[in-house]
Specification:
65 residues, two-stranded antiparallel sheet, 2 helices, 2 strands, 43% helix
Length: 65
């Protein structure tokens, strides 16, 4: 994997983006199945969690409020 530089610091990614995306899609399907007959309300509390939460919300295949 290619190193990532952020704010003058260099990091080696631990997990590939493709692996994260696949797991988010799996979680979205699991949540969709569990809440198929309901309308869940999704709330993202932490600012740093927003990128993950938005991907997960898009992976949800049902009606939500």
């Amino acid at each position: 994997m290619q190193d990532v530089t952020y704010d003058g610091m260099t990091f080696e990614p631990y997990i590939k983006r493709e692996t994260i995306d696949a797991r988010i899609k799996e979680l979205g399907k699991e949540i969709s199945c569990e809440y198929a007959d309901r309308k869940p309300v999704f709330i993202c509390v932490l600012n740093g969690a927003f990128p993950f939460a938005s991907d997960l919300f898009r992976a949800f295949e049902g009606d939500a409020e």
